[in-house]
Structure formats: structure tokens, C-alpha cells
């Protein structure tokens, strides 16, 4: 059975009326079970969940990787959350109120919330947490407009900003901006990263580096009846095939990113469920204008016109995903769906290429990709074939993932494949990354984008804000340094006896409502 949560705006659940009695591999449930995702979990049990990599650290202000967020988001909570429908909702606040020009925000904190060590959450903790994240190297630009953060009572915090900040609630839903005890409960940042304390449904019990992280129920959690599970074990299993095999065998209960070629088999198996969540993954081909290969805009346009995106989606993406033209994923607010994927035109691509070559441009370039990834390697092969059909000479260079990132970050590349996901529903975070990283290391247009972003961040009127974000998307679309190949959803797979598993558009699972069926 596949559960499809295709969009943040509209959630669709396709529940199979009868599950096929397909042949089971060793260890699979001998009898089919109902996979109703709305079933109420029983209390108790240990859930084993696996991703490709383990968490790098559990200090939210220094961590920047998704795997760390997957773990500490079960321990640490934010003032606001992005829910499964893509809405920013109050979480550790009872209410929030802004003044007329959105330069003063008043947050009234939820009563009865305690940290896992039993101490109550206070306004001083919130002030410390916001002050800390706004000074952290990774997130300073997201909170640069904040002027002051004050506790005006034990349960009230007032934030003032230098400019209107209508999206401040969305920014404070960032998983990397949670509420922690003031002064990290007397620990150093390094110590806190090993022993985090939060208000979340679980607390850290043990961490065996390179093997597993075990969380146990926070007995003083403020939400009645949550969590259902006694404990959660996070494991790192780099091979997607191995993760899938362990899921089938019952050694794992939930796995991230099952391999596309196996989705259908997992769909049909009685003991497993495949879930597609928000369409949050945009896939790009980056064309580096700082290399000799792509300084001529006619070369970039020729590449854009030559690529067969539908073939990539079908062959490399397993038919899962959709096409579009915006560099912002469909899951984000203000995604411009009117920007359509570029229509393939090999004839025009060949004309542009020949004209550019006659003026001194080169037909040759290198496409650098991380070795071992099924999607990347198939996509690179299709692009190579498409481009060579119109006259390009493309060399595929397979490197380990860390080397690709290092070379791309240093600008030492011609072309590469890339994706960028968001931790909040507003696009200000990813557009900020685009600007700060020199148009994602392509040397593309950023000056006008930066000006428009500042205007959009301050725009109180939603229509004005939408138009500014639309203009940004059109600029990036026309620049052709980020060639949008398509979008893919977050995909997870789990055992059919697991219920209540949800993944919001941020891709960070929320396990307070997850458990095993009664």
C-alpha cells in the first residue's frame, strides 16, 4: 500500500481495500494486516528507524544536517511548528500578536511546559534561545532583523525588529531554533550537543557513535497521552538496499529514501507501506558561469532546451515526482506554478550551440556527480545523451560526495547535480541560501534577487509579497544557471503495523503521534 501525501495543501490517502497476498521474504508478517494510517497506536514498544547517515551533533545551534535534526526534533521543540498540512501553528506559545507594522511581536508562552529534567520552561529560556540562534554562524542571516528580545513577564516574550517581519513566526518554526534551558542548563555547547535537554516527547538515553542513538519517553511531556512509544532507536544504514532488506526482515520499522526501483515491490508487499509526502525536493543541474564552459548565455540556453526532463523523471525518478519551472519546490509557499518546464527543442539547442561555438565558445564540459547514487548516475547519463545529440561533448566525472561538495563550493566545476530543501514553509530561507552561496556556486544573478528578497521579507501585504517572490523565481528561471529538472517528494517506507507516521514539508519526522497498532 502506498500512502500519498502529495501536497501540503491537500492530503490524499490511498488506502488499498485489500492487500495483495504477495510472496513474503523471510521474516515478513505471515498474514496481511490493515495499514490504516488513521488507526490509534497502542502505548509502548520500541521503534527502529534508519536513515543514510547518523546525526553529526545534537546541539541545534551548531548542527546544519538533516540527520541531526531528525533526532533532536524529538527532544527539542520550537515556539511554532509547520504541521502536516503545511501550516505554521503555535506550539510552545499560547498566542502571538504583532503590532500594525509587524515590528513588535508579543509571544505568550504555553503554561505547564517543562523540560525533560523537570524544570519549567520560562520566558528567560525563550529569550536565551532566540538570542543564541540569532548569533549562531549558520542562522544569523535568518534572524538579522531582530533588534531586541525581552521577557516582560515569566510567561511573555516581546521581540522587536528593525524592519517589518511578517514571517517571523515561520522563521521561529525552524527546527534549528528550538527552546533550550537558559545557559544550556550549565553545560558547554559541546556538552549540550551530547546531552541535550528539551521539552519534546523524548529524551536522550544513549548515543553509541557510528551505531545508534536511543531516545526514551519523556515522562513529563506536556501533551497528554503522548508519546505512544516507550523508545526510539535511530540507526545509520548507508546502503538503501540494506535498509530495505532490514525493513522487509523486520529489523527496522521505518526507513528513509527506499530505492526507487523497489517502491513497487514494497507497495505490493503485505507487511510494508510506502509513504510519499510533500513535493519538497527540487532537482537542479547547476551550470557554473565562472567556468569557461558556461559564460556564454547561449550555451546555458542550449543545455536547457536539449534536456528531456520527462525521461529523467521516469527513468531516474521511477516516475515519482512532477515537472515544473520554478527553482522553489511546490511544497513551499509562493511557489510559482505558472513557470512551466522548458519545452524540449533539440533543433534550437543545436543552433544556439553552433552560433556560440562560432564565436569562440566550447562544446566540451565536465558533469561532476557523486558516485553510487542511483538517481544521480542515471540522470547524468540521460543528460549526457541528450546533450551529445545536439553537439555537446560531455564527460561524466564520478567523485565521492564530499569531494563533489568541496569542489563545487570552491567553484572548481563546470556542471553538477544538486538539490536544496527548506526547513520552513516560507521561501526566505532557501532564497537566502541562493544569495549567500553566490547563486548556489554558479555565479548567477544575485544582486536583484537580494533586493527583491529584502522587499518580500518586509511586505505585509500578501499579494505584494507573492508578486515579489514571483519576480525572483522568474529571474532565476531566465538566468538558466539553475536548470530545474523536476521535483520529488519525501519518500519513506515502514512496516504496516506502524501507525501515525507523518512527515511535514520540512522532511523532519514527528514521532509523538507514532506507534504500533493496538
Model description:
The structure is a single chain. The chain has helices spanning 66-72, 123-135, 168-171, 189-194, 240-249, 263-268, 297-306, 309-315, 346-358, 374-389, 401-409, 428-436, 438-441, 447-458, 462-479, and strands at 2-4, 41-42, 46-51, 80-82, 88-90, 93-98, 104-109, 146-153, 156-161, 202-208, 212-217, 231-236, 254-256, 272-276, 281-287, 364-370, 393-399, 415-419, 482-488, 491-495, 498-499, 515-517. It has 518 residues and is of the alpha+beta class. Strands 1-14-20-13-3-12-11-10 form an 8-stranded mixed sheet. Helix 7 (297-306) packs antiparallel against helix 9, helix 12 runs antiparallel to helix 14 (447-458) and helix 14 (447-458) packs antiparallel against helix 15.
